[in-house]
Design brief:
Layout (H helix, E strand, L loop, with lengths): L9 E5 L4 H12 L3 E5 L3 H15 L4 E3 L7 H15 L4 E4 L15 H29 L2 E6 L12 H21 L4 E8 L8 H4 L2 H9 L9 H12 L10 E4 L6
Parallel strand pairs: 1-2, 1-4, 2-3, 4-5, 5-6, 6-7
Helix pairs in contact: 1-8, 3-4, 4-5
């Protein structure tokens, strides 16, 4: 059996109607998992679930819309997943928000709180909802999609960077708590990836070309580049890995 085989595993992926989340859901399904597609809009989730089912067979994916800022909606997501598949083996906390670009001094309280609530507190809520059953079964993988912003300072997205650094610490703390029950908690820290979420950072061709010339692999990331890391951390291949932040950034941080 392949170390990357996920046959029979059930995975929730938040923010999976596009970008890194969608690519991750497809790769998890490719490796045998059944996946739950979730983002704010039900029609967008339905479309991705239909694509996955058309590719890998009916019943591979279901769609459950949930706003990560709403604790009750996240509980609904978990409950619907259990109703459909009986359990949850893998949780990918990918959804996040960043409503502000600019100096930290100018961010409003509302914007700051939204970033912290959506990027940290919502992950805490969702993990707390799924971890007990994983611990009881003594098997589970939790993956938080963080960012290299959590490793560096920024004059434009400082609050976002703060939230992503906190996600890394959340993974370290929970790895300690859940490790004795064989539940692994890890982060992935992508660099710049060509997604709608990061459009403001890559849509200027001149800026993107200049950035590409400065990094070892000479290109911007694609969602599928990160999805491989998600499959690794979800699978037996990462059975000896917990509390870590895996940087996937074409070498930017070196």
């Amino acid at each position: 059996m392949s170390l990357f085989d996920l046959t029979g595993k059930i995975a929730i992926v938040t923010g999976s109607s596009k970008g890194i989340g969608k690519a991750s859901a497809f790769e998890l399904a490719e490796h045998g998992a059944k996946v739950v597609i979730s983002s704010r809009k039900q029609d967008a989730c339905d479309a991705v679930a239909a694509e996955i089912n058309a590719t890998y067979g009916d019943g591979t994916a279901i769609a459950v819309a949930a706003n990560i800022s709403d604790k009750a909606a996240l509980q609904y997501l978990v409950d619907k997943t259990r109703a459909a598949f009986a359990r949850i083996d893998v949780l990918v906390c990918n959804a996040a928000s960043n409503p502000y670009y600019g100096p930290q001094a100018d961010i409003s309280d509302e914007q700051f709180r939204k970033i912290l609530d959506n990027n940290i507190v919502s992950n805490h809520w969702l993990i707390s909802m799924v971890a007990p059953e994983m611990r009881e079964r003594r098997d589970g993988a939790i993956i938080i999609v963080s960012s290299i912003g959590g490793l560096r300072g920024s004059p434009q997205i400082g609050a976002y960077c703060i939230s992503k650094a906190a996600d890394m610490q959340l993974a370290r703390n929970l790895a300690h708590e859940y490790g004795p029950d064989n539940v692994r908690v890890n982060c992935i820290a992508p660099g710049l990836v060509k997604t709608d979420f990061a459009r403001a950072l890559w849509e200027d061709p001149a800026r993107q070309n200049a950035a590409n010339r400065s990094v070892p692999l000479r290109r911007i990331g694609e969602p599928a580049d990160i999805a491989g890391g998600v499959v690794f951390l979800a699978s037996r291949a990462a059975a000896f890995t917990t509390g870590q932040t895996i940087v996937m950034d074409v070498g930017v941080t070196i």
